[in-house]
Amino acid sequence: MALFHCQLFSKQLFASVDVNVILPLPDSGNYFFKSNMDYPKADQKFQTLYLLHGISADYSDWVRFSGIERYAQEHQLAVVMPSASNSMYCNLKNGGNYYSFVAEELPSMVRSIFPLSDKREDNFIAGLSMGGYGAFKIGLGNPGRFLAIASLSGGLITHKENDGKDSPVVGLAHWFKWVYGENNEHYDANNEDLLCIVKNMVKEGALLPKIYQCCGTEDFLYSDNVFFRDVLHNLKVDVTYEEGPGRHDWDFWDPYIKKILDWLPLKNGFSK
Description:
By secondary structure, the chain is of the alpha/beta class. It has helices at residues 26-33, 61-65, 68-75, 98-113, 130-141, 172-180, 189-192, 194-204, 222-234, 250-263; strands at 2-10, 15-23, 48-52, 78-82, 123-128, 148-152, 210-216, 239-244. Helices cover 37% and strands 19% of the residues.
């Protein structure tokens, strides 16, 4: 496998952004994993997973704390991991356009550098915690671009009366104000509330991506995740839901990202 640390200038953020990209390599696959992989020819591209980090984290977390490199090599999958600050993957009123960066600009940028497929059937997005919310928000907002979306311990219920006051994450209420405004004046349910987005899509008969959701039973976001799952079931939305012992940490996320790669409709080889 090959790990590329990219520093890309984003027009949406008007800043240089750190992005990690994993590409499986033939030599690693053939000699260590017996995958018999070749270098891509001109008409061959990699399937791609956009993998998002959580609050207070960055582009390096998935590589530092999980086995994503090994799992990607096994499945011959490219993985793109950008930094997005504590943005909730929103276009911030007083900051950068993080939603537009991850959903639109980033895929165009990395495809211009690496042999990555632009077909819907070859593109997936996932994330943990804040990144789980971001993956669902971006994937549901762009169902023609992403075949499947996945959330690990996602912060899927973003708008509550207390807005984070009961969370064990120190300063979360202040962070919500930074993202959505002092009095939630920047919060638009049609664009930010995942349940509202799904309900509108179901009502309109819109295309939905494949959905995977998981959470640890000891996670402080567990009840929110169960509630979200139940709403999807009531809407007759097909969702693959899994839970197990675990808290909001890498001991839970590492084995479950492997489960997600097993769940994704991967070709374990190049796309044409």
